[in-house]
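Next comes this protein.

***
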Amino acid sequence: MQYEGNSIVGQDGITRFEGEYISTHGAGKYEGIKGTGSLKGQRVNLMEGGGESYYDSKLSFVLPAQ
């Protein structure tokens, strides 16, 4: 998967982000996989406070017929 998106620091100092996923390749039984998705989330702490974040993701995949 590849992710492209943006992050914005709000007036409250919290970093929020959103973007889209696209599938880039697969191997083995996932060869030829196609898919897309979206992601939204935010950091739990300020950047100076550590690395905790949460994400809400939606993914959709289609595998080729075997």
The beta strands are 2-9, 15-22, 34-43, 53-62.
